[in-house]
Task: structure prediction
Amino acid sequence: MVVISSCRAKNRYILDVVRRTFPEAIILRPWWQGSSSLQQLRVWSKHPLRGAAKILRRVSNDVRDRRHERRAVQLLYGDTADSLDLPPHLAVPARDLRTGRTADILAALAPDVLVLSGAPILPPDLLAIPKHGTVNLHFGVAPQYRGEHTLFHALLHGDYDHVGMTIHRVDAGVDTGPVLAYVRPAMTAADDEVSLGVKCAQLGARVLVEYLHTVEEGAPALGTSQTTKGRLYRLDDRTLWKDIRSWASRSILRRRPPHRVAETTRFFPAASELALRQGSVGSRGNRLT
Result:
């Protein structure tokens, strides 16, 4: 098994859970190379107001993301957060994921399944390499909320029924592939985007391991097709003004999530059901590669 992941806090937790059951899993961690400061200055000098707006957006996004990451690490790892190291991994340039170089690496590894957790969009030739396909963990309920920052947008709209995670097979679209499971975390009025993301990671990691067991036993599910188009949210759809609106709604207007118990909807057989089908409770098939 190969996992492509950014290894940020929520994704790192999922990796830790997977590697406890499948220690042979190989992790590829993409890294992004931004444009040079000189190139940015040239662009911004032509459009000063637009450039200033981009600088403000980048700084505010960076501050927000760093604050959220620190809190997620603390919620997931507590007192051990300061001593955390990245799991063993192979760092690959993100641009190489769209070239033949990464495809050659993945083909040489010949994985049974490819798992994506915080990974960029991959080309079809890469997705076709794993024997049993590619699975993605999307922090949002698809198809209603596809793309980026979907937990944030669901909370902003007060759409609490669509706060959760989608585990799905990957196709050529963005979060449009057949659904293997929906995970909706327990919710209280004290929850926010970060704590709900953490709860999604904790619950979703266990469901992913359950699905990987079905692959290991030779019975991978195809999932259920998404019946509507929904909406695709892009990075630019989250603005500083929307962050302010979200804060004001929560802190001033006191609009907070209602109480809800955790709920998981699977579209693949549970381990006990699979064992009964095969008539071999407790037996294991070939280990994932």
Q: What stands out?
A: The two ends are 5 Å apart (CA to CA). The first helix runs from residue 9 to 21. The longest strand covers residues 26-31. Confidence is low (pLDDT under 50) at residues 280-285.
